[in-house]
Specification:
single chain, alpha+beta, six-stranded antiparallel beta sheet
Amino acid sequence: MRIGLRTALVVAALATTLVSCSSDSDVGAERPRVVDTAVVRAANGADDVTLSGRVVAAEKTRLSFEISGKVVRLSVDVGERFEAGDVLAALDDSRYRLVEQRATASAQEAKASLHEARLAFERQQQLREKGFVSEAALDNAQARLDTARSRYQSAQASRRLAQRDLRLTELTAPFDGSVSERRVEPLERVSPNQPVLDVISDREGFEVETSLSETLVGRLVTGSHHQVVVPSLGDAPLGATVRHVGSQPRSSNNYPVILELAEAPPGLRSGMTAQVRLALAGPAANAGDAAGDPAGAVRVPLTALVYDGPSNAHVMRLDSEQRLQAVPVEVLVAHQDVVTVTGDLKEGQRVVARGAEFVVEGQKVTALNQGAERYN
């Protein structure tokens, strides 16, 4: 029993030593650091910016009843298609039908009163011509005729309004399309202009909505051509044209941008996510840069610079093995978020875009690929 215990202790010690060696080996292994990178651009070139977006229908609307009532029928559900003129929903029309019948009866009564007043006026007019009645009697007959005519016109208008309200108990489709959202359920009471259905049209194609930061929106031109990729439909780029650039920012000072797709591929649906690839015009040169940038000048993000002194700076470039190299640069022009520099840099190379002061030369890294081509 004593020998068995000693053997067990020796085996446990050996196992502990092996685990310790294995842990030390893992700690000593180099783990690449994840960094945010940017592509070096020619000084006179354009910046490519990749943004997330959403596909929306170019023509869409929110349908509602103009009158109040209880919903008795919803003929469509989310995703279902319809044609222009189809009845999509209906209200209980019993009250509106009674109002229309009462208005019709009132109009008929007013019509009969008008007919009697016209006959009475004609008789008074004939008697006046023969001198049997006074001018005042004829004037009274004229006044009664005018009153009866006004009442008839008012009754006619009330009947038309009642008929209109009766027609409005049915909600009809304004175009061919499909339902994107249903906002009420049967037997629910609705008020005038309360949203009932959100619908999208088939006839105007699709658009892509995205947003651009305030530092870049001035470099996007309305009518310019760009590319859109819908990941769920593959990697094939779709042509798109900037149709609208918002004048008021959304949250975080991002301005809305709407691009119109040149052609909708099969299977494209409203609500799909999209990647928008914008080619932005180069930033305007400063006043002292009228002569243009020298040969070999490139642009990098302002945040990529690491200053070694009052006038010396460098950037951290990724080599073919994803290791960092410190490249001294000379700053020529500083724009709002981009700097024009000269140095041992070529267009298409990658540099650390942010946090370059926290890495060292020779360190192995992995590109984050998020905002890699954005200078904002």
